Amino acid sequence: MSFIVRPWQLLLVILVGWVQRQQQAILEFQNEQIQSLLAQQGKTRIRLTDDQRRRLAVKGKALGRKALSEITTIVTPDTILRWHRQLVAAKWDTSDRRKKPPGRPPVSTEIEQLVLRLAKENPTWGYDRIVGALANLDHHVSDTTVGNVLRAHGIEPAPERKRQTTWKTFLSAHWDVLSSIDFTTVEVWTRGGLVTFYLLFVMRLASRRVHFAGCTANPDGPWIKQVARELTNCDDGFLNESRSLLLDRDTKFTAEFQSILKQSGAEPVLLPPRSPNLNAHLERFMRSIKDECLSRMIFFGESSLRNAVREYLAHYHAERNHQGLENELIDPGDEVGTVAGAVHCRERLGGMLCYYYRDAA
Fold first, then answer.
1. Residue boundaries of the structural domains of the chain
2. Please, which residues have CB within 8 angstroms of residue 146's CB and are 6 or more apart in sequence?
3. How many Cβ atoms are within 10 Å of 252's Cβ, its own excluded?
4. Rounded Cα gap, residues 326 and 32, in angstroms
5. d(CA 31, CA 24)
6. Predicted TM-score of the model (pTM)
7. CA separation (Å) from 119 to 115, 146, 164, 191?
């Protein structure tokens, strides 16, 4: 079973340190500008339009009183919160039930909600684009109506909205070319006693497909360098379709290893120290292979370890359902979905791994 985590949230945390520093510098600069302008303004009252007050009220309410008190604003936090209360009061104002003079009917709640949804889910869409999308849904409104609805809810036009693209949207756009790599260990009995073997796995996050890159008791520079060559082989390299590779700061991932990846077009993305949650999909696979296979066996020699991994990966790809893929198989066989015939059980590793199926039609 896989725990669903939206992919590019990983990169958000990877870059969060840099983003926070940039945002802090921007906030300090903006605060200094505001303080300078307020000093020049003196006691003269700043005149704001209704649209400006609405936008400040919506965004100020999202920050809260405490956050507003910690930054420099052209009005006090109490004023912003009062504007928000007025917006809430206007929402529940029943004066519109009174008889109104003839004129253009108000925008329906359904259209209003659709306009807001389209604008929030598509930051680059302008008024005309939203009008066209509404027409496809048999709602015919003007671009002026769309603009009025958005302004009433404190939402900026497209040139401003598109600068607020969410990380969810950004990461989803790169999901298909993102992979991750990591080591795990297992103890193996050899002629020299109990030896720690290092197993290296690579995963394509979108498909959850896993590649066993190799195992060794001595993951030194030459070994990991050869692994990089095999992963980026122009004919059948597992990383040929990947553009970014998540990896931790383990010293086994040497500079030569990362250089080979870069030359092939797979950019290494180093995770912050002690942050296994940023490589959650591969970490979940590590837990699965240990709980379902490695921790339930005693290995005598490297060949027995490799055989167990090979059998588990065959089960993982073709016989194990994955919650992260809507509880489906990665490589379903022809027998999947067959409704007639006797039920059979395919066993691997002495019955440790089981797969139930009917004969293919």
1. 105-171, 174-304
2. 115, 127, 130, 131, 134
3. 16
4. 50
5. 10
6. 0.57
7. 6, 10, 12, 67
Indicate the SS3 state at residue 189.
Answer: strand
Residue 58, number of CB atoms within 10 A of its CB: 17
Which residues partner with 345 through β-bridges? 356
List the one residue out of 313, 350, 344, 346 whose CA is nearest residue 330: 313
| Res. 97: pLDDT tops 70 | no
Structure tokens at 324: 């992260």
Q: How far apart are CA 80 and CA 87, in angstroms?
A: 11
Task: Give 45-78 pLDDT, tens digit per residue.
Answer: 666 677 776 776 676 666 666 666 666 566 666 7
DSSP state, 215? E
Q: Cα torsion for 200, 352, 279, 299, to the nearest 10°?
A: -30
Q: Which two tokens stand for residue 25?
A: 């510098």
Tell the CATH topology of 174-304. Answer: Nucleotidyltransferase; domain 5 (3.30.420)
User: Quick one: angle between helices 77-91 and 50-69, nearest 10?
Assistant: 130
